[in-house]
Write a structure and sequence with these properties.
With about 400 residues, the protein is an alpha/beta fold. About 35% of the residues lie in helices and about 25% in strands. The protein folds into two domains: about 280 residues, Aminopeptidase (3-Layer(aba) Sandwich); about 110 residues, 2-Layer Sandwich (Alpha-Beta Plaits), CATH 3.30.70.360. It is built from twelve helices and 15 strands. The strands form three sheets. Strands 1, 2, 3, 4, 5, 6, 13, 14 and 15 form a nine-stranded mixed sheet that branches. Strands 9-11-7-12 form a four-stranded antiparallel sheet, with helices on one face. A two-stranded antiparallel ribbon has the order 8-10. β3, α3 and β4 form a beta-alpha-beta unit. Its EC number is 3.5.1.87. It comes from Nocardioides marmoribigeumensis. Keywords: Hydrolase. This is N-carbamoyl-L-amino-acid hydrolase.
């Protein structure tokens, strides 16, 4: 089956007719439909599928063992809220297309080749990105993850079995000798140099932080402005401070989610909770950025008669991909090597000691996590050929 046909089959799953954006929340109907599509494509190619205790799927062409480790590729099928079509699924569809291309070349791998579909990469339902790969690698313990809850209060242990229920479903990582993830570029570096494919050098360190602003709920009409203890003012200033600090330091800071309690139009809120996404070029720069934002938030809270508390919900350190592997892929082909500010399952596997590389496919506008996310078909096909070449190189 061609790349174009697979893409057309998967594209409607979880897409909003109104906005064109995607809502493939992990372990819900739309994402499960996407996983069923994955299973059907595996069956079409007679691949052997292993499903671990956390819902991750790994399909093998060949039979890997700890003594004959395979080359793994793939990505994820879940989305952010109102996300784009390419973030994650491009890597999965391209993996199947690359296997098809290798078979059409008559290639017989000396090392098994696997295709992965990781679960909850985006952290859009449970509050931790790359949750499936963190659990599979043991970077995150099940006892620490099982009580993670979504916005409706559903615990992770309520939707995935966990190792206690599936003690037979562990160990696939022991069969992986290298991992290559293809992904749409979430920026426009490749567009700037006019190249369809690039190789990742590193992932910036990044974190998600919850800031709880508390004040005194009161009447919007009868309470004089000078008598208010309004946490919304403290929150608003903190958003502006985060923007300023990130711009001054050349880093990234974003408030993309906020909750207000009690949420009355005619009432001063008693609590405002905002979530900060912060990313920086080094761990030191990330710490300095978050500290500066927290300090300004605290100063403003003192003036407003409110209080603020910052909680780190997840922090990921810098990831440097296997430099020798990156050179092996990039130099003979003239592909540019570039860092990325976005987190990926590849970063988790790299942190677990797996030799890891990433391929990026050009995104002409650089827009991502949006319905406008896009990669031209000709660039996607160039990515498929690039991935097939890399897998052939590594699986000889």
């Amino acid at each position: 089956m061609t790349f174009e046909q697979m893409w057309a089959d998967l594209a409607p799953v979880g897409r909003s007719d109104a906005t064109g954006g995607y809502l493939r929340q992990p372990f819900t109907a739309a994402e499960e439909e996407a996983q069923a599509w994955f299973a059907a494509e595996c069956a079409r190619r007679d691949l052997t599928v292993v499903t671990d205790a956390f819902g991750n799927h790994v399909a093998w062409w060949g039979s890997p063992t700890p003594d004959d480790r395979g080359v793994l590729t793939g990505s994820h099928l879940d989305s952010v809220r109102q996300g784009g079509a390419y973030d994650g699924p491009l890597g999965v569809v391209s993996a199947f297309a690359a296997v098809d291309l290798l078979r059409s070349r008559g290639f017989e791998p000396s090392r098994p080749i696997g295709i992965a579909s990781f679960r909850e990469e985006e952290g859009s339902r449970f509050p931790l990105a790359c949750l499936g790969s963190r659990l599979a690698t043991g970077i995150l313990a099940w006892d620490d993850a099982r009580e993670l809850r979504d916005r409706d209060g559903v615990a992770l242990a309520d939707v995935v079995p966990g190792p206690d229920a599936r003690p037979d479903a562990a160990g696939w990582l022991d069969h992986v000798g290298a991992f290559v993830e293809l992904h749409v570029e979430q920026g426009r570096a490749l567009a700037d140099v006019d190249r369809p494919v690039g190789v990742a050098s590193m992932i910036w360190p990044h974190g998600r932080y919850r800031l709880d602003f508390t004040g005194r709920p009161d009447h919007a009409g009868t309470t004089r402005m000078e008598d208010r203890h309004d946490p919304m003012l403290t929150y608003a200033m903190t958003v502006l401070a985060a923007n300023k600090q990130a711009r001054l330091s050349g880093q990234r800071a974003t408030f993309g989610r906020v909750e207000v309690d009690p949420g009355s139009t005619n009432g001063i809120p008693g609590r405002v909770t905002g979530w900060l996404d912060a990313r920086a070029e080094s761990p030191e720069a990330l710490e300095a950025l978050v500290d500066a934002i927290a300090r300004q938030a605290g100063d403003r809270a003192d003036r407003d008669g409110t209080a603020v508390r910052l909680t780190a919900e997840s922090v990921s350190g810098a990831v440097s991909f296997d430099a020798a592997l990156a050179r092996r892929l990039a130099e003979p082909r003239g592909w540019p090597v570039l860092p990325t500010q976005a987190g990926h399952d590849a970063g988790i596997l790299s942190g677990a000691g797996v030799p890891t590389a990433m391929l990026f496919v050009r995104n002409p506008t650089g827009v991502s996590h949006s319905p406008e996310e896009h990669a031209p078909v000709e660039d996607c096909l160039a990515g498929v050929e690039a991935l097939a070449d890399v897998l052939e190189d590594l699986a000889r």
